[in-house]
Design brief:
With about 230 residues, the protein is an alpha/beta fold. The chain has nine helices and nine strands. α1 links the parallel β1 and β2. α6 packs across α7.
Length: about 230
């Protein structure tokens, strides 16, 4: 039986998992999926990890295409992820209508948490722009993953988290005691694109190209849309 390994950004986890499973059933092959933050994806791909299909933001795809690591003609857009504001499930915050309301929420929080992925890099810059140090100072907490953002907020009821909406939905579905107060206000919203591509030089290249193409079909985009990726 053919075996494919998919390495993917975490924000598209639910859609990639569903589509990989469906492709595996249809083609009678084994598909293994692992998830990581954007910096981890770069590190692992640069180190030459054995991967058949990659799902990542365009900046990494561009670099890997120039290096000949991915098959450029297999590269396809799969969707966009937006960011949301995470609060504890019992929080009385139910809307964040504008940037000023967002700033007030940040300044009232016991801690503000984000991750080290591409969305976290954006969050760090946004916090510095809106609430320059020492307004927040040591109250900013940085964790490794989107899941860890939600887990932190669930354990610290007066904290506020910033994360990808798709990742927030995954953790809520798993029973994490958080909810999304609102998307980031439009004026400061961050949109991350995600693409997929087959990795060059792999034994099961045609199957990998097939999976990359499968994840970019109109039907696949409906699957991603249902998980918060538009």
């Amino acid at each position: 039986m053919k075996h494919l390994k998919v390495l993917s950004a975490g924000a598209v986890k639910r859609g990639v998992s569903q589509l990989a499973q469906a492709y595996a059933r249809e083609r009678g092959i084994d598909v293994e999926v692992e998830f990581a933050t954007a910096p981890q994806l770069r590190k692992r791909m640069t180190a030459g990890e054995a991967v058949d299909v990659l799902v990542a933001p365009p900046a990494l795809m561009e670099d890997l295409a120039r290096a000949g690591t991915i098959v450029s003609e297999s590269r396809s857009f799969i969707g966009r992820s937006r960011m949301g504001i995470v609060v504890h499930a019992q929080s009385d915050v139910h809307s964040v209508p504008d940037v000023e309301a967002f700033k007030r929420l940040l300044l009232a929080a016991s801690t503000v948490v984000h991750n080290t992925a591409s969305s976290g890099v954006y969050a760090a810059k946004l916090l510095e722009d809106l609430c320059p140090a020492p307004a927040l100072g040591s109250r900013v907490v940085v964790v490794d993953t989107g899941s860890a953002v939600m887990e932190y907020v669930a354990a610290h009821p007066s904290s506020v988290g910033l994360a990808q909406i798709s990742e927030i939905r995954v953790l809520i579905d798993k029973g994490c005691a958080v909810r999304m107060a609102a998307p980031l206000p439009d004026a400061v919203q961050n949109v991350t694109r995600y693409e997929t591509a087959a990795v060059a030089g792999r034994e099961a290249l045609e199957a990998a190209r097939g999976l990359a193409s499968y994840m970019a079909t109109p039907e696949a985009k409906k699957v991603f849309a249902a998980t918060g990726i538009d």
